[in-house]
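Person: I keep going back and forth on a fold encoding question. Show me how you would write down a chain together with its backbone fold. Please set it down just below, with no commentary around it:
Helper:
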Amino acid sequence: MSEGLKEIQERSQVGKEKVPYKSRYDIRRNKNKRLWEDETRTPEEIAAKKASMTPEDKLKRKKSVLLMGYSGANYFGMQRNPGQKTIEEDLFVAMFKNKWITEESFNQAQYANFQRAARTDKGVSASRQICSMKLPDEVDVETLNKDLPDQIKVFCVRRVTKGFNSKEQCDARTYSYTLPTIAFADHSETVEMEKYRAPAEKLEKMNELLKMFLGTKNFHNFTSRKEFIDPSSKRYIISFKCEAPRVEGEVEYCTIKIKGQSFMLHQIRKMVGLTLAVLRGHTDPPTINRAFTADRLDLPMAPGLGLVLDQVHYDRYNRRYGVDGIHKSLEWDELEPEIKAFGDKFIYPTIYETELKDKSMALWLETLHYHSYTVRPEDLEKSAAQEKEPTDDVEVKVENTLKDEDDKDN
Protein backbone atom coordinates (compact mmCIF):
# COMPACT_ATOMS: atom_id res chain seq x y z
CA MET A 1 0.00 0.00 0.00
CA SER A 2 2.85 2.36 0.81
CA GLU A 3 4.19 1.92 -2.72
CA GLY A 4 0.78 2.81 -4.16
CA LEU A 5 0.56 6.00 -2.06
CA LYS A 6 4.06 6.97 -3.12
CA GLU A 7 3.15 6.49 -6.78
CA ILE A 8 0.02 8.64 -6.40
CA GLN A 9 2.04 11.44 -4.71
CA GLU A 10 4.65 11.37 -7.47
CA ARG A 11 1.96 11.63 -10.18
CA SER A 12 0.32 14.57 -8.39
CA GLN A 13 3.59 16.52 -8.46
CA VAL A 14 4.12 16.10 -12.21
CA GLY A 15 4.08 19.51 -13.95
CA LYS A 16 4.20 21.42 -10.65
CA GLU A 17 7.14 23.66 -9.95
CA LYS A 18 7.84 25.35 -6.68
CA VAL A 19 7.54 29.14 -7.05
CA PRO A 20 9.33 31.33 -4.48
CA TYR A 21 6.85 33.18 -2.29
CA LYS A 22 6.50 36.88 -3.02
CA SER A 23 4.64 39.12 -0.64
CA ARG A 24 1.83 41.05 -2.28
CA TYR A 25 2.73 43.99 -0.05
CA ASP A 26 6.30 44.05 -1.35
CA ILE A 27 5.09 43.97 -4.96
CA ARG A 28 2.64 46.80 -4.33
CA ARG A 29 5.19 48.82 -2.39
CA ASN A 30 7.87 48.54 -5.08
CA LYS A 31 5.57 49.00 -8.06
CA ASN A 32 5.65 52.78 -8.30
CA LYS A 33 8.85 53.61 -6.48
CA ARG A 34 10.67 56.64 -7.76
CA LEU A 35 14.42 56.12 -7.98
CA TRP A 36 16.74 59.02 -7.24
CA GLU A 37 19.59 57.16 -8.90
CA ASP A 38 19.59 54.58 -11.66
CA GLU A 39 19.65 51.00 -10.33
CA THR A 40 22.49 49.58 -12.43
CA ARG A 41 24.17 47.40 -9.78
CA THR A 42 24.65 43.70 -10.37
CA PRO A 43 23.53 41.12 -7.78
CA GLU A 44 27.21 40.70 -6.82
CA GLU A 45 27.57 44.44 -6.18
CA ILE A 46 24.40 44.47 -4.10
CA ALA A 47 25.70 41.55 -2.02
CA ALA A 48 29.05 43.31 -1.56
CA LYS A 49 27.21 46.44 -0.44
CA LYS A 50 25.28 44.48 2.21
CA ALA A 51 28.51 42.90 3.42
CA SER A 52 30.13 46.32 3.83
CA MET A 53 27.27 47.80 5.87
CA THR A 54 28.42 49.83 8.85
CA PRO A 55 26.98 49.52 12.37
CA GLU A 56 25.02 52.73 11.72
CA ASP A 57 23.39 51.09 8.70
CA LYS A 58 22.30 48.17 10.86
CA LEU A 59 20.72 50.34 13.56
CA LYS A 60 17.11 49.48 14.25
CA ARG A 61 14.94 52.39 13.25
CA LYS A 62 11.43 53.09 14.48
CA LYS A 63 8.61 55.23 13.14
CA SER A 64 8.92 58.82 14.30
CA VAL A 65 7.65 62.25 13.36
CA LEU A 66 9.80 65.24 12.68
CA LEU A 67 8.43 68.72 13.43
CA MET A 68 10.07 71.38 11.29
CA GLY A 69 9.69 74.92 10.01
CA TYR A 70 11.10 76.59 6.93
CA SER A 71 11.02 79.68 4.79
CA GLY A 72 10.15 78.71 1.24
CA ALA A 73 11.82 81.73 -0.35
CA ASN A 74 14.43 80.67 -2.95
CA TYR A 75 13.18 77.06 -2.87
CA PHE A 76 11.24 75.17 -5.53
CA GLY A 77 8.83 73.75 -2.98
CA MET A 78 8.95 71.14 -0.25
CA GLN A 79 8.87 67.94 -2.28
CA ARG A 80 12.14 66.46 -3.48
CA ASN A 81 12.73 66.99 -7.20
CA PRO A 82 16.01 65.92 -8.84
CA GLY A 83 18.03 68.85 -10.14
CA GLN A 84 16.14 71.50 -8.19
CA LYS A 85 16.67 73.18 -4.83
CA THR A 86 13.98 71.90 -2.47
CA ILE A 87 13.41 71.75 1.27
CA GLU A 88 13.48 67.95 1.35
CA GLU A 89 16.77 67.80 -0.54
CA ASP A 90 18.55 69.93 2.06
CA LEU A 91 16.86 67.95 4.85
CA PHE A 92 17.94 64.58 3.44
CA VAL A 93 21.51 65.75 2.92
CA ALA A 94 21.72 66.81 6.58
CA MET A 95 20.06 63.60 7.85
CA PHE A 96 22.41 61.41 5.80
CA LYS A 97 25.44 63.33 7.02
CA ASN A 98 24.32 62.78 10.62
CA LYS A 99 23.54 59.08 9.99
CA TRP A 100 19.84 59.48 10.66
CA ILE A 101 19.17 57.64 7.40
CA THR A 102 21.06 55.09 5.32
CA GLU A 103 22.42 55.59 1.84
CA GLU A 104 19.52 53.57 0.43
CA SER A 105 17.04 55.82 2.22
CA PHE A 106 18.86 58.90 0.98
CA ASN A 107 18.65 57.72 -2.62
CA GLN A 108 15.11 56.39 -2.28
CA ALA A 109 13.00 57.88 0.51
CA GLN A 110 10.53 54.99 0.55
CA TYR A 111 13.09 52.81 2.32
CA ALA A 112 12.69 55.09 5.33
CA ASN A 113 8.87 55.20 4.95
CA PHE A 114 9.16 58.94 4.48
CA GLN A 115 5.92 60.92 4.16
CA ARG A 116 5.19 64.63 4.50
CA ALA A 117 1.89 65.90 5.94
CA ALA A 118 1.42 68.50 3.20
CA ARG A 119 3.19 69.49 0.03
CA THR A 120 4.07 73.16 -0.37
CA ASP A 121 4.94 74.74 -3.69
CA LYS A 122 7.58 77.24 -4.75
CA GLY A 123 7.94 80.13 -2.28
CA VAL A 124 5.48 78.71 0.28
CA SER A 125 6.72 78.48 3.87
CA ALA A 126 5.73 76.34 6.87
CA SER A 127 5.66 77.02 10.60
CA ARG A 128 4.82 73.45 11.68
CA GLN A 129 5.39 70.89 8.94
CA ILE A 130 5.20 67.24 10.00
CA CYS A 131 7.15 64.41 8.33
CA SER A 132 6.90 60.76 9.36
CA MET A 133 9.73 58.29 8.79
CA LYS A 134 11.85 55.59 10.42
CA LEU A 135 14.66 57.04 12.54
CA PRO A 136 17.14 55.71 15.14
CA ASP A 137 16.05 55.79 18.78
CA GLU A 138 18.65 58.44 19.61
CA VAL A 139 19.09 61.46 17.33
CA ASP A 140 20.77 64.80 17.99
CA VAL A 141 18.44 67.55 16.74
CA GLU A 142 20.83 70.34 17.67
CA THR A 143 23.67 68.85 15.62
CA LEU A 144 21.36 68.28 12.66
CA ASN A 145 20.25 71.91 12.68
CA LYS A 146 23.87 73.02 12.41
CA ASP A 147 24.05 71.21 9.08
CA LEU A 148 20.81 72.76 7.82
CA PRO A 149 20.49 76.22 6.22
CA ASP A 150 19.28 78.93 8.59
CA GLN A 151 15.86 79.06 6.93
CA ILE A 152 15.17 75.40 7.77
CA LYS A 153 14.88 74.19 11.36
CA VAL A 154 13.88 70.90 13.00
CA PHE A 155 12.17 71.59 16.34
CA CYS A 156 11.87 68.05 17.66
CA VAL A 157 11.58 64.34 16.87
CA ARG A 158 8.88 62.23 18.53
CA ARG A 159 8.11 58.49 18.47
CA VAL A 160 4.76 57.45 17.01
CA THR A 161 2.92 54.20 16.34
CA LYS A 162 4.35 51.72 13.84
CA GLY A 163 1.72 52.34 11.19
CA PHE A 164 1.57 56.12 11.49
CA ASN A 165 1.44 58.13 8.27
CA SER A 166 1.69 61.91 8.60
CA LYS A 167 -0.50 62.54 5.55
CA GLU A 168 -3.11 59.80 5.84
CA GLN A 169 -3.80 60.33 9.54
CA CYS A 170 -4.00 64.10 9.37
CA ASP A 171 -7.45 65.36 10.39
CA ALA A 172 -7.07 68.95 9.19
CA ARG A 173 -4.55 71.56 8.09
CA THR A 174 -4.39 75.25 8.92
CA TYR A 175 -2.82 77.74 6.53
CA SER A 176 -2.25 81.46 6.94
CA TYR A 177 -2.11 84.09 4.22
CA THR A 178 -0.44 87.42 5.07
CA LEU A 179 -1.07 90.40 2.82
CA PRO A 180 -0.93 94.23 2.93
CA THR A 181 -4.31 95.78 3.68
CA ILE A 182 -4.09 97.92 0.55
CA ALA A 183 -5.75 94.86 -1.01
CA PHE A 184 -8.93 95.78 0.91
CA ALA A 185 -9.28 99.23 -0.69
CA ASP A 186 -11.98 99.83 -3.29
CA HIS A 187 -10.70 99.46 -6.86
CA SER A 188 -11.73 103.07 -7.60
CA GLU A 189 -9.54 104.43 -4.78
CA THR A 190 -6.00 105.69 -5.42
CA VAL A 191 -3.97 104.83 -2.32
CA GLU A 192 -0.35 104.22 -1.32
CA MET A 193 0.59 100.95 0.36
CA GLU A 194 2.62 102.66 3.10
CA LYS A 195 -0.16 105.11 4.02
CA TYR A 196 -3.29 103.02 3.69
CA ARG A 197 -5.06 101.78 6.84
CA ALA A 198 -8.06 99.50 6.47
CA PRO A 199 -11.23 100.85 8.16
CA ALA A 200 -13.11 98.59 10.57
CA GLU A 201 -16.06 98.19 8.21
CA LYS A 202 -13.77 96.74 5.52
CA LEU A 203 -12.47 94.08 7.91
CA GLU A 204 -16.02 93.29 9.01
CA LYS A 205 -17.17 92.86 5.40
CA MET A 206 -14.09 90.73 4.65
CA ASN A 207 -15.01 88.28 7.41
CA GLU A 208 -18.63 88.15 6.22
CA LEU A 209 -17.43 87.15 2.76
CA LEU A 210 -15.06 84.52 4.16
CA LYS A 211 -17.94 82.86 6.03
CA MET A 212 -19.53 82.04 2.67
CA PHE A 213 -16.83 79.39 2.12
CA LEU A 214 -17.54 77.44 5.33
CA GLY A 215 -18.84 73.89 5.24
CA THR A 216 -18.71 71.33 2.44
CA LYS A 217 -18.63 72.96 -1.00
CA ASN A 218 -17.66 72.01 -4.53
CA PHE A 219 -14.37 73.81 -5.22
CA HIS A 220 -13.81 72.76 -8.84
CA ASN A 221 -13.57 76.47 -9.77
CA PHE A 222 -10.77 76.98 -7.27
CA THR A 223 -8.29 74.50 -8.71
CA SER A 224 -7.25 73.14 -12.12
CA ARG A 225 -8.10 69.99 -14.07
CA LYS A 226 -11.12 69.21 -11.88
CA GLU A 227 -14.67 68.74 -13.08
CA PHE A 228 -17.80 69.54 -11.10
CA ILE A 229 -18.85 65.86 -11.13
CA ASP A 230 -15.53 64.74 -9.63
CA PRO A 231 -16.24 63.77 -5.98
CA SER A 232 -12.79 64.96 -4.94
CA SER A 233 -13.79 68.53 -5.86
CA LYS A 234 -15.79 68.68 -2.64
CA ARG A 235 -13.84 69.96 0.36
CA TYR A 236 -14.81 70.79 3.93
CA ILE A 237 -13.76 74.20 5.30
CA ILE A 238 -13.83 74.40 9.10
CA SER A 239 -12.89 78.05 9.67
CA PHE A 240 -11.89 81.04 7.54
CA LYS A 241 -11.17 84.35 9.26
CA CYS A 242 -9.21 87.58 8.85
CA GLU A 243 -7.31 88.63 11.98
CA ALA A 244 -6.81 92.19 13.25
CA PRO A 245 -4.36 94.31 11.24
CA ARG A 246 -0.85 95.16 12.40
CA VAL A 247 1.79 97.57 11.15
CA GLU A 248 5.21 96.28 10.09
CA GLY A 249 7.56 99.11 9.23
CA GLU A 250 5.30 101.57 7.41
CA VAL A 251 2.91 99.03 5.91
CA GLU A 252 -0.26 97.62 7.48
CA TYR A 253 -0.75 93.86 7.09
CA CYS A 254 -3.50 91.37 7.86
CA THR A 255 -3.30 87.60 8.24
CA ILE A 256 -6.11 85.38 7.00
CA LYS A 257 -6.28 81.93 8.60
CA ILE A 258 -8.07 78.99 7.02
CA LYS A 259 -8.59 75.52 8.47
CA GLY A 260 -9.88 72.64 6.37
CA GLN A 261 -9.69 68.88 6.10
CA SER A 262 -7.61 69.11 2.92
CA PHE A 263 -6.92 71.46 0.03
CA MET A 264 -6.31 71.17 -3.69
CA LEU A 265 -3.88 72.79 -6.10
CA HIS A 266 -4.18 76.62 -5.89
CA GLN A 267 -7.40 76.35 -3.85
CA ILE A 268 -6.54 78.77 -1.04
CA ARG A 269 -4.98 81.34 -3.35
CA LYS A 270 -8.10 81.34 -5.55
CA MET A 271 -10.39 81.59 -2.53
CA VAL A 272 -8.47 84.64 -1.32
CA GLY A 273 -8.34 86.05 -4.85
CA LEU A 274 -12.11 85.91 -5.38
CA THR A 275 -12.84 87.31 -1.90
CA LEU A 276 -10.59 90.31 -2.54
CA ALA A 277 -12.19 90.87 -5.96
CA VAL A 278 -15.62 91.03 -4.30
CA LEU A 279 -14.35 93.25 -1.47
CA ARG A 280 -12.79 95.69 -3.96
CA GLY A 281 -15.96 95.88 -6.05
CA HIS A 282 -14.91 93.99 -9.18
CA THR A 283 -17.83 91.57 -8.78
CA ASP A 284 -20.76 90.94 -6.44
CA PRO A 285 -21.00 88.53 -3.46
CA PRO A 286 -23.32 86.14 -5.36
CA THR A 287 -20.33 85.28 -7.55
CA ILE A 288 -18.93 83.31 -4.61
CA ASN A 289 -22.04 81.13 -4.42
CA ARG A 290 -22.06 80.70 -8.18
CA ALA A 291 -18.47 79.49 -8.03
CA PHE A 292 -19.72 76.41 -6.15
CA THR A 293 -22.06 75.46 -9.02
CA ALA A 294 -21.30 73.52 -12.20
CA ASP A 295 -20.46 76.70 -14.16
CA ARG A 296 -16.75 77.09 -14.95
CA LEU A 297 -15.93 80.68 -13.98
CA ASP A 298 -12.99 82.94 -14.77
CA LEU A 299 -11.52 83.64 -11.30
CA PRO A 300 -8.28 85.32 -10.16
CA MET A 301 -5.56 83.64 -8.10
CA ALA A 302 -3.77 85.63 -5.39
CA PRO A 303 0.08 85.69 -5.31
CA GLY A 304 1.88 82.81 -3.57
CA LEU A 305 3.87 85.18 -1.35
CA GLY A 306 2.31 85.22 2.12
CA LEU A 307 0.99 81.64 2.12
CA VAL A 308 2.26 79.60 5.08
CA LEU A 309 1.43 76.09 6.31
CA ASP A 310 0.65 77.06 9.88
CA GLN A 311 -0.39 73.84 11.59
CA VAL A 312 -1.21 70.17 10.99
CA HIS A 313 -3.88 68.59 13.20
CA TYR A 314 -3.99 65.00 14.53
CA ASP A 315 -6.97 65.09 16.88
CA ARG A 316 -8.05 61.45 16.41
CA TYR A 317 -4.51 60.16 16.88
CA ASN A 318 -4.10 62.23 20.04
CA ARG A 319 -7.34 60.93 21.53
CA ARG A 320 -6.40 57.32 20.88
CA TYR A 321 -2.65 57.23 21.52
CA GLY A 322 -1.79 60.49 23.26
CA VAL A 323 -2.99 59.14 26.62
CA ASP A 324 -1.91 55.49 26.33
CA GLY A 325 1.16 56.04 28.52
CA ILE A 326 3.50 54.95 25.70
CA HIS A 327 3.23 57.64 23.05
CA LYS A 328 3.07 61.41 23.32
CA SER A 329 0.34 63.45 21.69
CA LEU A 330 1.27 65.40 18.57
CA GLU A 331 0.84 68.79 20.16
CA TRP A 332 3.64 71.30 20.56
CA ASP A 333 2.68 73.74 23.31
CA GLU A 334 6.08 73.52 24.97
CA LEU A 335 7.77 74.41 21.67
CA GLU A 336 5.58 77.40 20.79
CA PRO A 337 8.12 80.06 21.90
CA GLU A 338 10.79 78.46 19.70
CA ILE A 339 8.41 78.08 16.75
CA LYS A 340 7.26 81.69 17.05
CA ALA A 341 10.84 82.97 17.29
CA PHE A 342 11.77 81.09 14.11
CA GLY A 343 8.78 82.49 12.21
CA ASP A 344 9.45 86.03 13.42
CA LYS A 345 13.06 85.80 12.26
CA PHE A 346 12.93 83.85 8.99
CA ILE A 347 9.37 83.51 7.63
CA TYR A 348 7.44 86.74 8.11
CA PRO A 349 10.32 89.22 7.63
CA THR A 350 10.92 87.58 4.25
CA ILE A 351 7.27 88.15 3.34
CA TYR A 352 7.43 91.82 4.38
CA GLU A 353 10.73 92.51 2.65
CA THR A 354 9.74 90.76 -0.56
CA GLU A 355 6.41 92.60 -0.69
CA LEU A 356 8.12 95.96 -0.29
CA LYS A 357 10.69 95.07 -2.92
CA ASP A 358 8.55 93.36 -5.56
CA LYS A 359 5.10 94.77 -4.69
CA SER A 360 3.58 91.50 -5.88
CA MET A 361 0.19 92.23 -4.28
CA ALA A 362 -0.06 95.76 -5.66
CA LEU A 363 0.79 94.56 -9.17
CA TRP A 364 -1.67 91.69 -8.91
CA LEU A 365 -4.49 94.03 -7.84
CA GLU A 366 -4.08 95.88 -11.15
CA THR A 367 -4.99 92.67 -13.04
CA LEU A 368 -8.31 91.98 -11.31
CA HIS A 369 -10.35 93.93 -13.84
CA TYR A 370 -9.16 91.62 -16.63
CA HIS A 371 -11.21 88.73 -15.21
CA SER A 372 -14.85 88.36 -16.24
CA TYR A 373 -16.02 86.45 -13.11
CA THR A 374 -18.48 84.65 -15.38
CA VAL A 375 -18.36 81.58 -17.61
CA ARG A 376 -15.46 81.89 -20.04
CA PRO A 377 -16.36 82.03 -23.78
CA GLU A 378 -14.33 78.90 -24.57
CA ASP A 379 -16.20 77.00 -21.86
CA LEU A 380 -19.54 78.15 -23.26
CA GLU A 381 -18.53 76.89 -26.71
CA LYS A 382 -17.36 73.59 -25.23
CA SER A 383 -20.61 73.18 -23.31
CA ALA A 384 -22.66 73.91 -26.43
CA ALA A 385 -20.67 71.36 -28.44
CA GLN A 386 -21.19 68.71 -25.78
CA GLU A 387 -24.94 69.30 -25.79
CA LYS A 388 -25.06 68.60 -29.54
CA GLU A 389 -23.20 65.31 -29.18
CA PRO A 390 -25.31 62.12 -28.69
CA THR A 391 -25.32 60.92 -25.12
CA ASP A 392 -26.87 57.45 -25.58
CA ASP A 393 -24.88 54.56 -24.15
CA VAL A 394 -22.25 56.90 -22.71
CA GLU A 395 -20.79 55.82 -19.41
CA VAL A 396 -19.26 58.54 -17.27
CA LYS A 397 -16.49 57.29 -15.05
CA VAL A 398 -15.32 59.33 -12.08
CA GLU A 399 -12.12 58.48 -10.27
CA ASN A 400 -11.69 59.77 -6.77
CA THR A 401 -8.19 61.22 -6.52
CA LEU A 402 -8.75 63.05 -3.29
CA LYS A 403 -5.68 61.73 -1.50
CA ASP A 404 -3.38 62.25 -4.48
CA GLU A 405 -4.30 65.92 -4.85
CA ASP A 406 -4.27 66.96 -1.21
CA ASP A 407 -2.32 70.03 -0.25
CA LYS A 408 -0.30 70.62 -3.32
CA ASP A 409 0.51 74.34 -3.84
CA ASN A 410 -2.43 75.91 -2.07
